[in-house]
Amino acid sequence: MQGYAAAGEGGVFAQSRECYQELEEWLAGEEAGGLQHGELEEQLDVRGRELLRLLFQDRLDLLAEREVRRHDVTGEDGIARTRAEKGRTRPLATKFGQVTVSRIAYRAPGAPDVHPLDAALNLPEEKHSHGLRKLAAIEAVRGSHEDAVAAVTRATGVKIGKRQAEELALRAAADVDGFCADRRPDPAPDDHALVLTFDGKGIVMRPDALRPATAKAAAAAQGKLATRLSPGEKNGRKRMAELACVYDAVPVLRAPEDIITPPGKKRKKKAQDKKAKGKRREPQAKGKWLTASVTDDIPAVIATAFDEAERRDPEHRREWAVLVDGNNPQIEAVTAEAARRGVTITIVIDFIHVLLSA
Q1: Cα separation, 347 vs 320, whole angstroms
Q2: What are phi and psi of 231, to 5 degrees?
Q3: Is residue 297 a contact partner of residue 336, using CB atoms and an 8 Å limit?
Q4: What is the distance between the alpha carbons of residues 318 and 191, in angstroms, rounded to a whole number?
């Protein structure tokens, strides 16, 4: 086992210690004393981030000093690396700023270098750290990639490009299918209802991503604005994303007034009475599974949901309910899929759509 140097020995953490001393002196000085709390907070955010960056860098430098040359390094190609070169560096962009990772490179003629310390640190293939990747992925789902870039910069002071933010989000989502597959809920008891629900959502697309018929309609339309669509002009610019959800529900006996409650005080009193009696007002969804696609058509997404439902109830012993909003292609696809699998289903259409189609 390698020895561990104390924090004060030699030059270990010298940079970060010097930075902290400068920060301490600044806080005790006249300049900081004249700042309002908001200005002080902003300055500490910037200066403190630099202190954390230097702590990170000093720790990496310490790891480089402690790395011991090995004599049994073999790459994934099976070729032994018999040569070693110390001090090979690579950049790493972190949430605190950019640092440099120095390590031993093991080499062989005609073969790529191998860096065991990279694996020990679990360094990413790209320049950006996993922390930045996670932050970019979180912000990317909130809106556009431009907004994600701006949010990352606000939070960290690190500037990344739009394409980089997009690539980081894609890398973060690379294992989403495996992640979801590992967390699929176990089958529920036979007396629990098995519910499938489907819906469609129009998504505004780039012109080159529209289906042929929609793209033709969009090309023929004349927009009021030169640079963007005004309200009401997104018709013919969308592709329908099909969404499907499967979940288990414990049946709850309810009267009509439990579903369509009386207005005003009677409704409030009824809710209070049920809460006092410890009664549940409606069935609770459990074990929710969700999928969506803007590329697959309605029958394909519905078939995927039926696959999940059959995984939970392969012998079709449970009560199957399908919730839709009156979309005829959905109903036709659901009916066809149920017939193909030999399962009995109850289709439930929401009351508002029934009224509108009457």
Answers
A1: 9
A2: -55, 135
A3: no
A4: 6
